[in-house]
Amino acid sequence: MKISINIDGSFKETEITINCATMNQALERVIATLRVLDFKLTGTKNGQTFILDASEVLYADTVDKKTFLYTKTDVYETTLRLYELESQLVNKDFFRAGKSSIINFNKIKSLKSDIGGRIIVVMENNEKLIVSKQYASFIKDKLGRA
Questions:
Q1: Does the structure show a pLDDT above 90 at 125?
Q2: 42 pLDDT exceeds 60?
Q3: pLDDT the model gives residue 141
Q4: Strands 94-98 and 75-78
Q5: What is the pTM of this model?
Q6: What is the 3-state secondary structure (H, E, C) of the chain?
């Protein structure tokens, strides 16, 4: 892969152009990573609203009809419903892991098969999450497994 960077003070904004013969999984991951780096979410904690880089969110889940965003060190509440988050983040390497959770694929540290076709994922903060059998195919597809 050849990478070229053109630094010029006259540019108004950063633009990334990808030239390729064919699209492959590695390139799709690069694109998803670039998209998530430029995507922001808002969450509240202790009465304050914070602007969060989506790339820093490990996962989101719903508890008692409230949706929370989890980073390595903090938990933020968001006004978005889980399905709204999912629709915004689906092209950014986030995936549905169960009825009440969405996981950032790029923040998974390790994974292990579990009984009944489920997958146990360990996140970068060492928290363990379950991916239900219904949604395990996303991980298998990402890893190129059948």
A1: yes
A2: yes
A3: 81
A4: unpaired
A5: 0.74
A6: CCCCCCCCCCCCCCCCCCCCCCCCHHHHHHHHHHHHHCCEEEEEECCEEEEEEHHHCCEEEEECCEEEEECCCCEEEECCCHHHHHHHHHHHCEEEEECCEEEEHHHEEEEEECHHHCEEEEECCCCEEEECHHHHHHHHHHCCCC
**Cross-strand partners of 104:** 94
Domains of the chain (ranges, CATH numbers): 25-142 (2.40.50.1020)
What end-to-end distance do the CA atoms of the chain give, in Å? 28
pLDDT (tens digit, 9 = 90+) per residue, 89-112? 877 889 999 999 999 999 999 999
Q: CA-to-CA distance for 38 and 30, rounded, in angstroms? A: 13
- At residue 38, does pLDDT exceed 70? no
Mean pLDDT for 112-116 is: 90
Give the separation between CA 61 and CA 81, rounded to whole angstroms. 9
| Amino acid at position 66, single letter | K
Per the structure block, which two tokens stand in for 96? Answer: 């549905």
Whole-number Å distance between alpha carbons of 110 and 108: 6
